[in-house]
Amino acid sequence: MTATTSPTANSRPVARTHPVIGTIALWVIQVLLALTFVVMALPKALGNPISVAPFDLIGLGIPGMIVVGWLELLGAVALFIPRLSGLAAVCQIPLMIGATVLSAIVTPDLIVVPAVTLVFVCIVAWFRRFDASAVIQKVRLRLPWP
């Protein structure tokens, strides 16, 4: 990820990259995101009555809350699967945009959590974009298109 140049014996610059550090940092972000999604999703997926109010406000109610909770849980699991992590992050972006907007309306004091989560999901989606593209391409090749 980071390129530096250093002179060699005959004074030609050589590019050195440190992809291991970037990969470790990305995996740390993915693990923290997955844990965040699990913590945010469990009350929704299990139908906790306290979580219903925001979903009632936008007209989704209990069924919408449970669907969003399970989508967040599935996204958290997919963040641990290398081939699916990019696609999982891309799919979590709309959920986190909705969570940020809903938080701004219902609980403006707590908008930081979904907003920061959205930023980190976008970072993972960007750096895993080639993995997401590869998965989409494989699915596209296997589907019978007219």
Helix fraction by DSSP (H/I, runs of at least 4): over 70%
Strand content: 5-15%
Mean of the pLDDT scores?
85
> What's the number of extended β-strand segments?
2
Largest sheet: 2 strands, antiparallel
- Separation, N- and C-terminal Cα atoms: 41 Å
Counting DSSP H or I runs of 4 or more residues, the number of helices is 6
- What's the Cα radius of gyration? 20 Å
Order of helix and strand elements from N to C terminus? EEHHHHHH
- Class by SSE composition: mainly alpha
Shape label? globular
Task: Give the uncertain stretches in residue-range form.
Answer: none
Strand order in the sheet with the most strands: 1-2
Describe the structure.
This protein is mostly helical. It is built from six helices and two strands; from the N terminus they run E-E-H-H-H-H-H-H. It has a two-stranded antiparallel sheet. It is globular, with a radius of gyration of 20 Å.
